[in-house]
Amino acid sequence: MAGHSKWHNIQRRKGKQDAIRGQLFTKLSKDIYQAAREGGGNPETNFRLRVAIERARANNLPMENIQRTIAKATGQLEGATYEELLYEGYGPHGVALLLEILTDNRNRTAAEVRHLFRKHGGNLAESGAVAWMFQRFGEIVVPKDKVDADDLMMVALEAGAEDVIERSRTYVVKTTPDNFRAVRMSLEEKGIPYEEASLTYEASTKMDLPEEALEQVYDLVEALESLDDVQTVFTNLDTGDDEEDDE
């Protein structure tokens, strides 16, 4: 049984969504806030903000919420100030975990995250303990039925992409962080549609666990993702992400 299947079997058995609606909206709003604070409130000139807005709209965050968040970030309305952090730790069975944090109170967040690590048999580590295992890259997901493979390959590689990976229903264009924007813009200019585009982390080497052990790790990941200040959790587990489920 592939790691991908095991992971999703566990999710289905628990019968829970990745995040409740309100919690998801909080995370999306924070992402918009940080993007607007750093690069301004115009998505035409602020690429990160544009990505954040598109992701929010895809998840049905109301436009009124988006506009209010941008106004707070650019000083037109009063609001909290957030900072981006990267937390590192080890979960059950020595699994490495990398957490993207967006918080207005780093002491509160550190305490909450440390508590969950301890509760689930892991520990929050010092800076640098885990990050060296991961590489930062851009990922653009293109549906197979919307593009010719040769055309995609040509456009992506000419724009500076590192690779184009074929999956069961999609192609994944991988880029360096520096080339992510140029590759995405090139795809748009050529009329090539995509389902998702984001900067992410991937472990250089991955570990495989049996389903029982994987479930223990999932419990920790689920608990961490339930915190409003935790934007994304990355692990070095081999969950079979390169093999898409055909269900």
Instruction: Please describe the biggest sheet, giving its number of strands, its sense, and whether it closes into a barrel.
Output: 4 strands, antiparallel
| Counted beta strands | 8
Instruction: Show unreliable segments.
Output: none
Helices and strands: which structural class? alpha+beta
CATH superfamily of the largest domain: YebC, transcriptional regulation domain
Which CATH class of the largest domain? Alpha Beta
CATH architecture of the largest domain: 2-Layer Sandwich
- Radius of gyration over C-alpha positions, nearest whole angstrom: 19 Å
Strand content: 15-25%
Distance between the termini: 14 Å
Number of domains: 3
Q: What value does the average pLDDT take?
A: 87
CATH topology-level name of the largest domain: Alpha-Beta Plaits
Order of helices and strands: HHHHEEHEEHEEHEHE
- Determine the fraction of residues in helical runs and give it as a percent range: 40-55%
Number of helices: 8
Tertiary shape: globular
Order the strands across the largest sheet as they lie in space.
3-1-2-8
GO molecular function: DNA binding
Pfam families: TACO1_YebC_N, Transcrip_reg
Organism: Alicyclobacillus acidocaldarius subsp. acidocaldarius (strain ATCC 27009 / DSM 446 / BCRC 14685 / JCM 5260 / KCTC 1825 / NBRC 15652 / NCIMB 11725 / NRRL B-14509 / 104-IA) (Bacillus acidocaldarius)
Protein name: Probable transcriptional regulatory protein Aaci_2117
